[in-house]
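Side project, low priority. Logging it here so it doesn't get lost.
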Amino acid sequence: MLTMFTDTDTDFTPQDAKEYGFKLISMPYVLKEKEIKPYVDFDKFDSHAFYQQLRDGVMPHTSAISAEEYLNYFEPEFAAGNDILYIHFSAAMSCTFDNLNKALEILKNKYPERKYYSIDTKAITICSYNIVKAIGDLFKQGKSLEYVLDWAKTEVDHYAVYFYASDLRFFARSGRISNLSAVAGTLIGIHPVLTMTGKGVMTTICKVRGEKATLRKIVDFVEELADDIKNHRVIIGHADCLPLAQKLATMLKERLGNDLPIEYCVVNPTAGSHCGPDCIGVTFHAKRR
């Protein structure tokens, strides 16, 4: 038997996990000096309450899962005779994967007959969400593990994402942009547009002044790189700014057609601790990243 895992940094909720047959690893964040594990310490993410706290000045941060916690997730599966497939957010973005590797070394020695497989989405939040759902669809269609692993070797790099945030202090705290750029950009409305590279790291691709111009630039990127886009999910993610997400959806449909298969997704609180409120982005099937 194969047990499939994903993590909350892919924006998967317990409902998503149940629909696709995944077990969910909770990626923690720290708010007001208290560590919180999504869908362990609460059943439903109150996104408005969380992001409103950030607007009011609370600055959260994140922490890595320990090797012991990974053992708690994985060992019961190996002990039951199951192999594991873990589809996760970018390993290049967190030291938590060092702890994962320590846990896997312990498990390899204890259960040498068991197999562990992984797929690195080389992304986080909505781009990972898009990829994990696509993989879930393949398993629903009856595709084999070997087929899915082979699919991921090339297809992961055909899911692109572009996003920006209105309040740049959160990206500055996580080192994505400089403090000076954050202050200046927030004051005069300059938005760095960010993407995820093929190496699974976040990078600024351009800077645009003004909300409308920034959204238009993101639509430009989608139009330029779109590949068989209407036969794949187009997911717009937002950090408690649904009206802005709907505005982006309207612009995308005006450019690419009203039949564009758009879904909305709220950015999970762990990733949201780095991007802050009013972050908006889109992920789609692309010619390349």
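Brief comment: Residues 96-110 form the longest helix (15 residues).
Revisit when time allows.
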